[in-house]
Predict the 3D structure of the following.
Amino acid sequence: MMIVTSVGGSPEEARKEAKQALLMGSDIVELRMDLIWDSPPDLERARDLIGGMEGRTLLTWRTEKHGGRGSEPSPQYLESLARISRLVDVEFELAMRGLRIANALYSWHDPSGTPDMDVLLRVSNQLLGAGGLAKVVTLARDELEAYRVLNLYKRVDHRGRLVAFSMGERASFSRRMAALLGSPLIYSFLGEAVAPGQLTLREALLIKKLLS
């Protein structure tokens, strides 16, 4: 599936961008709520944000540790988001404390670099063990570090549930290769890129067409 990350400068702008992405062919839109609000919005505002798109949204409140702007949300808050959205992002720390949500995308990001293979394998297996989809993303300083992350597709028993690639201009190819290696999600952007090396929606559409 193709997913477009929408940030927007306001809830209205993010909603408009998300709807446009869906019209252009994206399967899902990720709404980065930490880039829209200074604190987690209540459920009513979150529901207004995704109104009419409930079955095609990923709601994300990214913490500073994982490259976002927010502080850690409560498990109860994420559980409430999961009731109104197709997918909800659950970061590594909450997953390791036992938070289990049926429609979760369990995620781990290292915005400072790429750790060694042992760390990547441990994190990947822990996320996959939580159930749902597992996302592992690092900042790659060069192509070799990006290949290290891509090696996860061969080293773990992911059964089509692993999303693994690297950020960075020299690692942009890893986003394309991830689709070829079995990633269930192809991340892209419409408007403003959220991370260095991110694919445009138009390129992601071409990749999806080639793989279909």
Notes: The chain has a mean pLDDT of 95. The CA atoms of residues 90 and 145 lie 25 Å apart.
